[in-house]
Structure formats: C-alpha cells, structure tokens
Amino acid sequence: MTTSNLHMYVMAAPLICALFVNLLGRRSRTYIAPLTLGSLLFSSVTACFVLANALKNGRMSYTVGNWSPPYGIELIIDPLAALMLLLISVVALLATCAALPTVQREHAGKEHLFFTLYLILIAGLMGLVMTGDAFNLYVLLEITSITTYGLIAMGKGRAVLSSFNYIIMGSIGACFYLLGIGYIYILTGTLNMADIATRLPLVQGDAAVATAFAFLIVGLFIKMAFFPLHGWLPHAYSDAPMGAGVMIAPLMTKVTIYLMFRVIFSIFSPDYAFYQHAIIQNLIIWAAAISIIAASLMALAQRDLRRMLTYIIIAEVGYMVGGIWLANTQGLTGALLHIVNDALMTLCLFLAAATILYRIGSLHFDDLKGLYQRMPLTMLAFTIGAFSMIGVPPTAGFFSKWYLILGGIEAGHWEYVAALIFSSLINAILFFRLIEIAYFGNGDHGHGHKQTLPPTGSAPWYMQGSLLVTAVTLIIIGLGSGQLVQGVIKLALPAGF
Amino acid sequence: MIYQSSIWPLMAVLVSLCGAIPILASERKPNLRESWTLLIAAAKVVIVASLLPTVLNGGGFVFTIAEVIPNVPIQLRVDAMGMFFALVASILWFFTSLYSIGYMRALDEHGQTRYYASFAVAISATIGVAFSANLLTLYLFYEVLSLSTYPLVTHHQDAEAKKSGRKYLTYILGTSIALALPAMLLTYQLAGTLDFTSGGILAASGASPATLGLILVLFLFGFAKAGLMPFHGWLPAAMVAPTPVSSFLHGVAVVKVGVFSILRVIFHIFGPDLLFDVNLGVVITTIASLTILVASLIALTQDNLKRRLAYSTIGQLSYMILGAGMLTAAGMTGGLLHIAMHAFGKITLFFCAGAIFVATGKKYISQMDGLGKRMPITYLAFFFGSLSIIGMPPFGGFISKWSLATGAIESGQLILLLVLLTSSMLNALYFFPIIYRGFFLPAAKGEPEGIKEAPIFCLLPLSITAICSLGLFFWPSIFLQLAKMAVIP
Q: In angstroms, rounded to a whole number, what is the distance separating the alpha carbons of residues A284 and A314?
C-alpha cells in the first residue's frame, strides 16, 4: 500500500465487501455484521491517513487504471475531499451500529440484500467526493440514487410509493444534470473538470454556458431537496427502513451540497457563478432564506419525530446553499463546516430516533412520554444533538451557524441572517416541545392515541454506544472547530477566499 | 494588568460540574448524596477564595480552554469583577445547599437526585459566567445555565410547572438567541474581537451611534435574565420552583448572571466613555428606572409572598443596571456592589418564605397573621433582609444605595435620585406590612396549634445570611475593594 493510492482502498473496501455480504450473507447472516463493520472500520482508519496525507502534501490527482486525463477518469484528493471521505466513512460506521439490529428485526431474511445495497451506496458516496470527472460524477450520482431507491422501497407501508415518487424526482434531477454535462461537452469537448475549467473562459459569453450552468445547478437542487424542489424528501426519508434512514439522512444531502460546491468551483469559477449573474445569486440566497423559514414551519406541524427531522434536514440544506452563494470567506467556511457538523448532528438525532424506535416501537410524540426516565442515556445524547441543532455552544452546530450568520452580515443579506435566527428559534421550540413531553412523563392524560405500546426489549450496547460516541463527538468538534477551520477548511477554500 | 496562566479558574468551574456525577451515582443513599453536595460546595468556596488574594493585589488568572473562532477563544479569566461575582455566588451556594437539605427533606420532595445534580451544573455555569474572558464564553455558560435550570424550575412536573417552564425558556432562551446572539455577532463584525477589555472594544470601530444604540438595546433585552421590562415575565412564573431554587437561582445566580452580563457589556464591550460620548447612558437609565418603579408598584399588589419577592427582585436588579447606566465611578461601583448586597438580603427573604412554607404550608401574605410570635427567628431574619433591601443603615443595602445615590448626584441627573428614593419608599411599603402582620396582628381563628420554627437546616442558613447582611455594613471592604477595582482599573 503506497500512500498515493490509499484513497482507493477507502472506496474499494465497502464495494468489495458488498459482493461478499451478498454471497456469504445468503448462506448465514452471521457473516454480515463483521463484513460490514470491518470494511467500514477499515475505511475510517484509512481515511484518517488519507486526510493526514492530503493536509501534508496538498492536492493530489490519481488516474484510475493509468488512463491519463482528460480521457481517463481522474480522482482528486484535496483536503476537502479527504475530509468528506473521512466524514462518510465515520458516519457510515456509526450508522451501521444502529442499522444492524434494526434491519435484523425489520427485514429478517433479507439482511444480505439490504446491506449489499447499503455498502454500494456508501462506496458511491465516497466516489462522488473524489471524482474529478464531470460525467463520472453523473454515473456515481445515479449509483447512489438507485441504491437509495432500493433501500427506501424496502420500508413498510407506503414506502414503495414514496420510493417511486423519489425515482421520478431523482430521475428528473439526474436528467437535468446530464443535459448540463451534454451542453458543456458540446462547448468544450471534454468531461474532465479541470480541463473544462481551463476551456470554459474561452466560450464564457455563450448563452449555452449559462444554460449548462442552470441545468447542472437545478439538477443538484432537486437531488439535495432544496426548497421548493424538496417534495420527495420527507416521505422518502421517513418511510425508509430506519436502518437505511439513519445513514442516508445524514450523508445524502450533504454530499450533494459538496457536489454543488465542486461544480461551482472546479468546473465553473466563483467569478462566473457569483458575479456574472448577481441577480441569480441574490435570488438563490432569498430562496435559501425562504426555504429555511418554510421548512422550519413545516417541521413545526409534525407530530412524529422522524418526520420532524426530515423537515429540519430541508431547512439545513437552505443553510448551506445560502452559505455557499453568499460568496464570501465567512459564508463558505460556515457552509463547509456545516456540512461536517450537520452530518454529525443529523446522525446523532437519527441514531437516537432509531434507538427509541427499537425500544418502544413508535416515534409518535404521544408515545414519547416519560422517556427521560426510561432511557436516560439515549435521551441525554438526543438532548446534546438537539442543542447542536438549536445552536447552543459549545456543541458543533453553534460554530458553523456563527460563520454563516457572519457571512450573511458581511454580504448584507439580512434576510438570510434573519432566517437563520428564526430557524434557531423554531428549532428551540421543536426540540423543547419534545423534551417537555419526554420529561413530563404521564403528567397530563388524555387526547387520542391511547394504546400503550409493549416494550420491545432494550437496544443492544453498540447501538447506544455509537449514539453516545456521536453525541460526544458533537462537543469535541465544537471545541475543536478552531483547529478544524484553520487546519482543514481554510485549505479547502478556493483561491481568492 | 498581568494575568498568570493557571488551571484553577477551570477547576472552580469543573468542581461542581464533575461533582454532578457522584451525586447522580449515589441516588439511593441520600445522606451520601447530600454529603457530596456540601463537600463540592465547600471545595468551590475554597478554590474561589484561594484566588482572591492575588486579585486583591491587582493580579489575575487566565486559562484557555479551546481556540474556536479567530481572536475569540473559549477562555476563563479571573479579574476583580469576575471575582466579585464568583465570591458571592459560591458562598451563597454553600448556604443554599444546607438549606436545600432542610427544605427538600422536610417536604419529602421527589426527584431529589436530579435536583442536586442540576443545581451543581447550574452553579458551574454561574462561576463560568463570572470567570468568562470574552463574550462568547459568557454566552456559552449563560446558555448552559438556562438549560440546566429548566429541570429545577419544572421540578414539580405538574401542569403548572410545565406552563412556567415554557414561559421560562421562551423568555430566557428566546431572547438570548433572537437578540443577544445577533448583538454579539454584530459586535464581532465591528470590533473583530469579543474580549472583555477595560475601556471597551467598540470605541475604535467607528460605528455610528445608531448602530451602537441598536447593539446596546439588543444586549439589554437579550440578557433577559436581568429582568428588564418588558422581558421580566419569566421571573414571577419561575416562582413555581421549590423555594431553594427560587432563593438561589432567582435571587442570586440566574438573575445576577443577567445583570452581570449587561454590566460586562457596559463596562468592557462598550466602555463608559463611548456610551457617554454617544449619549447612550440615558437609554439604559430610562429602561432601568421604568422597570424599578413599575416592578415596585406591582410588588405592592401581590399577595403570594414569593411573587412579591420576585417583583421586588425585578426592581432591585434594575438598580444595578441603573447604576452602571449613570456612567460615573460611584454609580458603577454602587451598581456592582448592589449585586452582593441584594444577594445576601434577598436570599434571606426567600429562605424565610421557604421556612414559613415548610413550617405552616402557607404561601399567601394574607394568611400569615401572627406568625411572627411563633417563628421569631425567621421573622427577625426577614426583618433584617427587608431592611437591607430597603437600604437602611446598619445593613449592607445602605452602602450600595448610598453609592448609587452619590452616582446619581455626580452624573447631575437628579431625576435618578428621585427614582431611587421613591423606590426605597415603595420597598418599605411592600415589606413592612408582612412584618407588621407577623408580629402585631392576631392569628386567624382555627389556626392549628403547635406551629414552630422550620428544621434547623432551614433556620441556620437564613440566620447566617441575615447576619451577613448586617455584617456587610460594617465590613464591606473586600466587596467594596473588588467593585472599585472593577470600575477603575
């Protein structure tokens, strides 16, 4: 193993294990847990080395199969990609600890199928953050989407319908993206991102470039569920099996935002994206502000923990899209930091939800009474995750919000600043409403939903363990956000920021 | 001033935070649990006091926890002003811990382990606020205090507690996110730092008076724990909590953290000179004066003893802010000094209210006729406490009010002097009837015989704090010196 191709192992481990999980898991399910956890643990450890390498040596390019670019596929490892790689591996590893017992209970006999798709999805996400090829990005985007459709469709009830809805929307998004790439190929004759970036300025005035840019960005907006293109997400994520949701929810939207960052900075240029279309830039920030407010209000209307969380995800997408389009150092720093933080806090809350679901069999608000007494540790971790979402220091969520708001102030986009603060307030209401229900036990009797659910056994130790680790990580990342910003994110910002 | 690097400020914060763990672990052994509480409280006083000599000699301590934002670390620093507040809070926590034992056991309250653990976290946050080196650190501990006191306010876990808890969080957390956080961000944007610097950090930013005014108002209302009207409603609602919580948190820690934060902003973010130059002191004094008068008038109408004390607190808190808003040395010293003087007086009054409740189960002043003869010690302590709050010599409250009055004259705003005098009169009007009823009115018919003083654990702390109120008149030197050092660096 030389250090220059370590990142390939990070991605290869889950991909290869996906095959073995299918083959061996068919015979006996005892193989599944060690294979899945083992491969992701390997990826996590290796990703640490990749990050250390990238920080030491800077940007690194790798040509798959030694086909030289612009014809071959080029993988780019820079500090940001390495950070994303580490984030994906670690989040996937922690999520798997909760996915294993839930899937075992919900889909007994189909675990090998579930985890095959699950691992391919993770490998796809890892590929997405590394790829330096615009078309390869499309292929990987489809790999992750198709595996996600499959995983969601394994859920109960109306999951199939939700998945179908997602297929329609996801495919439209993919088509848009593909069309955009088509235009660019016609204009420049290349698909390699770096190559496109050097050739695009020559044809910049062309209306076709603007069309391509619009297709690419709108395609990604659909994939990341940016308001008002978010319709598919709440159903898809809350009808999915809990084991899939716990991994997809933290990662999928965040990786797509990273892709938008890549499209803007690696294919186009900040000059093109932000300054030549100042009206569009303003519109997108307004849309982000509206998306944050609207999604927060919709979250307020939910009476089920998981559905509430899905709307919060949509609001958070608004945070990051807005942060990137603010086009200043603070905003970009905040958006990138928020990708990391939001992935971890969403993971924390989904893990808590999974543990609660495993234990009491429901996530409806009325069934959560007295949880602080029944599951003190789980609720402690949930509370930390909630504080991070609200933005209480020293949890991670506070610090990315800090940069985002500063970016908004600096750019003079007060509507965005107001939306962020409004959303913090709504989050405070959302989570304290839950905390109140869980804290006050059976204080008030009454309205509806009378049946008490039978206790379904306590969650295994590793499920609670991964939850607690995530909660502690939120505080550590919060306290270490100075180092994270100075050491990694500063290096990841494009030139000029 | 030279600050030496030291881990002790961190220890002062951590000792009770970590102390929550053995408290939680000894759930089934109440005696052991309470021993832990007392041990931690004593350790806290010792650690804070051990830092005192250096501070009195003009030194200080600093400890950086983490570098989180450029120029804004999470950092603890012990200076005269922080020392002043930490000393008051840690000493009074010890007495409250003693009192809690008497009160909670006498009433056989549920969830006592949670109660003591939350209390330990809350006092950590209070000391954290006192020792914060910059606004971000202060905000961090401010929020931790809001959240850790939620289980204390809602201790009874009934419908009323739920309602009050909601109100509590809405006011405290809501204003801190919606007002204080933007104010902090604007300050950072303008000054590039949030460090508490004597003379302020905003002076050099060249911001317009309008911007400065906006930031100031956001801060004044954003730290709603200080109870400036119209953001005072949470305090009477929070009286639903057990009395030790009301006495310590809503007489000392929580409310004074609010005041302390505002004073920090006035002294060390804006700086008195800047506020004087752009004539913003009048904004502070106007809001504070209105709060003083209105709260005192409302206090007159309250029949529930704890609610009357709550409105009295709202009025008294604004004294401190009023003093700082005068922007003169005497006024600012008086404002800071009133934190300590009011703390000892008001905690005595709350302790007495709790002792009366433990002994008789009574909450309303109109039911308390003739109790003074049966509970002479409690009523004497109550008398001492109220005299101190009114500002009569020979009680501590006189010293701070004297300083405030001097400040009002120095600043040439005689109307402020009028506000102070009117309010003192109102204070007397709402306190004396309670004492009069207790000593001079006959007990109502059908009153059960055998009402006697509350348990010793209740009685002892309230006697000590009452005597302290008296003692502070004769020996105010430590607090006076710290306050002067804080105002004139």
A: 15
Please list the ranges in chain B whose pLDDT falls under 50. none
Q: Can you say how many angstroms the Cα of residue A371 is from the centroid of all Cα atoms in its chain?
A: 28
Tens of pLDDT, residues A166-176: 999 999 999 99
Cβ pair A10, A46 in contact under 8 A: yes
CA distance A467 to A476: 14
Give the structural domain span for B452: 280-489
Distance separating alpha carbons of residues B409 and B349, to the nearest angstrom: 30
Q: Which residue matches tokens 């506020």?
A: B275
Contact B68 A390 (CB under 8 A): no
Residues of B in contact with A421 (CB under 8 A): 177-178, 181-182
Domain-embedded: residue B468: yes
Distance CA B49, CA B83 (A): 9
Euclidean distance between CA atoms B65 and B74, whole angstroms: 5
B298 close to B427: Cβ distance less than 8 angstroms? no
- What is the C-alpha separation between B314 and B292, in angstroms, rounded? 7
Residue A92's identity, in one-letter code, is A
pTM of the model: 0.91
Rounded CA-CA distance B32/B23 in Å is 8
| DSSP symbol at B201 | S
Question: In chain A, whose CA is at the least distance from the CA of B150?
Answer: A436
Q: Identity (one letter) of the amino acid at A312? A: I
- Cross-chain Cβ contact B177/A391 below 8 Å: yes
Q: How many domains does chain B have?
A: 1
DSSP state letters, A25-59: HHH-GGGHHHHHHHHHHHHHHHHHHHHHHHHHH--
* Cβ-count burial A350-385 (b if 16+ within 10 Å, e if not): bbbbbbbbbbbebbebebbbebbebbeebbebbbbb
Cβ-defined contact of B69 to A393 (cutoff 8 Å): no
Q: Answer yes or no: do A424 and B177 touch at CB < 8 A.
A: yes
Cβ contact A44:A167 at 8 Å: no
Q: Which of A390, A439, A490 to mutate to test the interface with B (most CBs of B within 10 A)?
A: A439
Question: What digits encode the pLDDT tens for the residues A303-356?
Answer: 899 999 999 999 999 999 999 998 888 999 999 999 999 999 999 999 999 998
Structure token pair of residue A461: 């130790």
Say if A212 is an interface residue toward chain B (CB within 8 Å): no
- Name, in order, each residue with C-beta under 8 angstroms of B446's C-beta and a sequence gap of 6 or more: none
Enumerate the residues of chain A whose CB falls inside 8 A of the CB of residue B182: 405, 417, 421
The reply to whether B104 falls in a domain is no
The order of strands in the sheet holding B3-5 is B3-5, B60-69, B72-78
- Please state, in angstroms and as integers, the Cα–Cα distance from residue A351 to each residue in A42, A357, B9, B237, following that order: 22, 10, 36, 36
Q: Would B321 be classed as within a structural domain?
A: yes
Cα separation values, B137 from B25, B69, B246, B487, Å = 29, 11, 25, 21
Residue type, B448: P
Task: Determine if the peptide bond prior to A460 is cis (ω within 30°).
Answer: no
Cα gap B257→B265, rounded to integer Å: 12
Give pLDDT, residue B412.
85
